[in-house]
Each structure stands twice: as structure tokens, then as C-alpha cells.
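User: Okay, second chain of the day. Same drill as before: sequence in, C-alpha cells out.
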Amino acid sequence: MSSAHILVVDDEPDIRSLLKEILEDEGFSVSLAEKGQAARESLKDRKPDLILLDIWMPDIDGVSLLKEWKENESFDCPVIMISGHGTVETAVEAIRIGAYDFIEKPLSIAKLLITVDRALETSSLKRENIDLKKQKEIPIDQSFGNHPLLIKLKNQIEKVASHDTSALITGPTGSGKEKFARYLHECSPRVSGPFISVNVGGLARENPGVELFGSEKGDEVHFGYLEQASGGTLFMQDIFDMDLNTQARLASALEQQSIVRVGGHKTVKIDVRIIASTRHDLQQKIAEGLFRDDLFYALNVIPLHVPALKEHAEDIPDLLDHYVQYFVEHEGLPARKFTTAAKNRLRSYEWPGNIRELTNLVQRLLILGGEEEIDLREVEAALGLAPAAPPAEIISGYDFPLREAREQFERGYFEYQLRLNAGNVSKVASHAGIERTHLYRKLRALDIDPKEIAKQFKEKQGQ
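Assistant: Same drill. C-alpha cells below.
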């Protein structure tokens, strides 16, 4: 990742040279332009992180140029105005249009450097704030889970994060691929740069290249996502949804580390890490002629796989508690608690929507409110599932003598509880309120084999 890039626009050669020397000594990369038109051309060469813009220039005044740039919605870098003939009215107008600050000549180097640092910091914070508002996923923190598969994935990400190469994250829908992409970004040296998430399927069908690679029309420059993410990470969701022509352009951009904007002619260097995600088997799609192999190999430098939630079902009780706590703290929803039976039912659920479905379920149950505890019946209703019916012999047992009816009830009751708890005797004992050793004796007397029930449960889950 490179340092922040600053464009200095001033018609005085001595000022340009001085600022270039000072800023480069501070570790910045610097481009120079002597007038407005040269500044426009410089934007075509590279998107700056900050602009120092003189007010008075031979071809156009700085305020007019600032206004022109601010009308371009893809222009988001801070601008510091500098002038030797400034007035209060000019400064107020520049700030109103969108300048970060106004500095008068002769320049105070100390003040200039402080202003530059603050402008870059403010821009970074503003970008982070926008990103957080757009982000719908739960923050990473403790929401991974503790299954060995997830611990291995987390460790793998931490190990490879410092290597500035592309990554491909695979996994089923809703499994949290964006969450792990963000974690890779946060563990990398690019953490101070932007993290931009793009849904490939949502790109303009008529010309997706404009949104990705940007465009030029006369002096007007539109910066695409590859330049907007400069110095940071571009996360491309559902990469398989990209058409083959755009795939070819992206593969070339990754190989050359440069782009040519739509309508432009100059080659523009890019400084961005690409993380792509997909739920598809891309190698199979390559065999079917639906995905380019050169793009696959360019992205698959670091392959990462996020498992489905059912593959780490042991984490579900803790994840439920985690997300309850999250929504209570961050959205002010009322605290509720899942009963053991409800948690056990959710552990055995298939979760076709994975973590996203679990998160939405927790949020929905808290919003709808109700009793302090979320029980089995409420969970099944929220999932649209029919509750597990008690054994028929329990209902028909009224015709038996009391001793036989009680035996029938106990057999049906304990078989039902064992199925509900995946054959876990300890959980059944806790729910039934009896000692585990006593329950084992009772099960032997009723000729019930909890291991067989657990085996049946696993076989049913594997179907």
C-alpha cells in the first residue's frame, strides 16, 4: 500500500517546488500542476487523496475549479485552498462549496502540515462513517463462533493478511463471507484505507465497466470503484454474476495493476486489494464456459472457505446469546432469553440462510417481544415449522390401566425429549428435572436406547 497522494495546484514554480519537497519529506507522494487545465489532466492520471489548490491561476480561479469538481459525485477527496490575496468572502465561499480549509500565503509550513494531516484524518473518518452506515452485517468482534473450522479460518486470514494479494472467499449464501473479507482488511496494512463492498449483480447491466473502471468525457472524470478503493480493499460480492467481457477487463487490470477508464486513453495505475466472493464452484463454471480461467487464477491466490452454519452447529447456542446481546446494546431492543429446548431445536435446524438467517431470526423475535423467555413453540412459529407432535400412544393411553398408561406415557415422553435433544441424556435429565443416573435406569427399564435415537437424528440431519 502506498502513502497518501497529494496534488499541488499553484501557478508559482517556487511554491510548487517547496511544497513538493516538504510533503515528500513527510512521506507523501506528490503531483504538481501549474494551472487549472493541468490539474484536470492530472486527475485523469491518478485520483489524489488530497488537493492543495491555489485561488488565483491564469486560466481559471480555484473556487470555480473546486465547484466544478464538487459537482462530480465520484469526487470525494478533501481540498485545501491556498492564496496570497485571500479575502474573508473568498474563504467563506470556498468553505461553502466544500473546501476543507483555507490557508493564506506566505505559508506557515507547520500550519500547512497540521492542516494536511487533519484533512486526511477527517476524510478517513468520514469514509468509515459512511461505510458503517452501509454495513448491514453484524460487526466482527466475537460473532465468528468457536468451532475448529472457524478458528482455523480466522488464523489463516491473520497469517495471509500482510501479503498484499487477491483473495477468493467461497461459501454458501448468508454464511458471512463479507464479514471475513472485512476481517482480512482489518488485519492487513491497508486497514487505514477504504473498504468498499460492491454487489457485482447490482452493477449497471448496460455498462458495468463505468462503475468499476470509471469514465472520462472531455475534462470530466468519473472515478470507478477500483480507484475509489485506492489504498484499501475492494470487496466484490458474487463475482460469478460478472459478464465475460467485464471479467476479461478485470483480469487484465489485476495482471497489469492498471486500468484505462471508459472513454479514456491514458493508463492509470491502481493501488487496491481485490477480495471476491462466490457461492458457486468457479472451476465447474470455467468448464461450462461461464467464467474466465485467467480471472479465477488472478483472484484465487489466497483461497478461503466459510463453512455453512450447520457445519458448526455447536456454536449456535453461543451465537444466539451473542446476537441477543448485540441487538439489546446497539438497537435498544428488549432483552430476552432462549430456553434450552429452543436452543436445542435451533441446533438441529438446517439453516438454509446460515448466519444471516440466524441473525434475522434473533432480531425478529426481539422486535416482536413477548415473554422474557423465547420458548420452543415461539421459535418453531417464527421459523414457520410445525411443532414436533408427541407420540400417538400418549394420546391413546387413556384406555390402559394406570400402571400401563404411565409406562406408555413415560416411554413416549422420554423418546420425544431424546429426539428433541438429539439423544443427549444430560439435557433431557436437566429438562425433566431428574438425576442423570436415575434417567439412565428409567431408560433401561423402558427399553429405550439413547444412542440409537442419536444415531437416527444424525442420519436424518445428513439427508
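The chain has four domains: 5-133, 148-306, 310-382, 392-462.

User: Thanks, on to the next one.
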